[in-house]
Design a protein that fits this description.
mainly alpha; two-stranded antiparallel sheet; globular
Length: 340
């Protein structure tokens, strides 16, 4: 844990250092956010703020993690092969997000990639990740029932469940990314929670030979590296934001969080630990369903959920702080349930 905390701090420092230059580059190339007219009117002042800020998170995480595991990667050890899964998922979803962000910036109406194109791409990446995990170390294709010590192997059913979790988590963080500081602080909290869970698991699993030791061992520093980069992003994303995460960051963080939950086996706790993103996603689903069933009526003033509170008159800072307090409490509950 000492090493993990140190690496989280290092990730924070490295990301903060290049945050300013990144903002200048994004401004130079005119990569600014376009605000849709159907959104809250208070958001219109944010038009033109640099987006694709997820690069500030993704690049330090990829560089630091790869550097720390260079021997494992070159030696193709169990840990080396396993660490490639969250790294590849993060890079792949970040690339998809970059394309989406660029299409949104360059598009006339501020619309990014069409859902009928984007969703199959997400499913494809998630399915490949699920297959790699399933045919990897046996610890990775199991599920842990809260308060039950023994992991359960659910067979081939794990593959579609894993793919669904990765796609759902990716879009959940994306829906959460709508207010200054919201997605960053929620993601950082969730990653730290899973970092603690992985740390607890390293003591709960019986010792194995060196070349077969539990793969959860490297998930501890990885989780805090991501959390540190998220906090560095918040330095520039705090209200009023100088930089937006964009799909580049939100999709990459969400997918990686889903992979992390799967690799710890504690994916049943994801709806609790990621309570706010889950609520944001269901608010969108319920809004659409209610709208269709009632012939045009709305269940919420606007979805995702944070926009509902914007229209109720809550300030942006109030919403972010209150949502984060809920997320923090949910994370603590999740960690408590993970203790055997």
């Amino acid at each position: 844990m000492r090493t993990a905390l140190f690496l989280g701090s290092l990730s924070f420092l490295l990301a903060v250092v290049w945050g300013g230059p990144l903002i200048r580059v994004l401004k130079h190339y005119g990569i600014g956010k376009k605000i849709r007219i159907e959104g809250p009117t208070t958001h219109q002042v944010k038009a033109g703020t640099p987006t694709m800020g997820g690069l500030m998170i993704v690049i330090p995480v990829l560089v630091i993690t790869a550097a720390l595991n260079i021997a494992n990667l070159l030696g193709a050890t169990v840990i080396g092969k396993s660490i490639l899964v969250p790294l590849t998922a993060m890079a792949a979803f970040a690339t998809l997000g970059i394309i989406d962000d660029l299409m949104e910036v360059r598009g006339k109406r501020g619309q990014g990639m069409l859902a009928r194109v984007k969703f199959p791409a997400q499913v494809t990446i998630a399915t490949v990740s699920a297959l790699i995990l399933y045919f990897g170390p046996p610890q990775l294709r199991s599920v842990v029932i809260p308060t039950v010590a023994q992991k359960i192997d659910i067979g081939l059913l794990w593959i579609p469940i894993a793919a669904f979790i990765i796609v759902f988590s990716s879009n959940a963080i994306n829906f959460t990314d709508g207010l200054d500081g919201l997605a960053g602080i929620i993601a950082a909290t969730a990653f730290m929670a899973y970092g603690v869970i992985a740390y607890l698991q390293s003591f709960q699993i019986a010792p194995l030979p060196t070349d077969e030791r539990p793969v959860v061992s490297y998930l501890v520093p990885f989780s805090f590296i991501v959390a540190g980069a998220c906090m560095a992003f918040l330095w520039f994303n705090a209200h009023p934001a100088q930089l937006f995460m964009g799909d580049t960051g939100s999709e990459a963080l969400g997918a990686t969080l889903g992979v992390l939950a799967l690799m710890t086996g504690q994916w049943l706790l994801l709806p609790i630990i990621a309570l706010v993103p889950v609520a944001e996603t269901f608010s969108v689903m319920l809004q659409i369903l209610y709208f269709k069933q009632t012939g045009g009526k709305r269940l919420f003033k606007m979805s995702p959920l944070h926009n509902h509170y914007v229209l109720l008159g809550w300030s942006e800072t109030q919403i972010v702080w209150r949502f984060w307090l809920v997320a923090l409490g949910a994370a603590m509950v999740g960690i408590a349930l993970a203790i055997q």
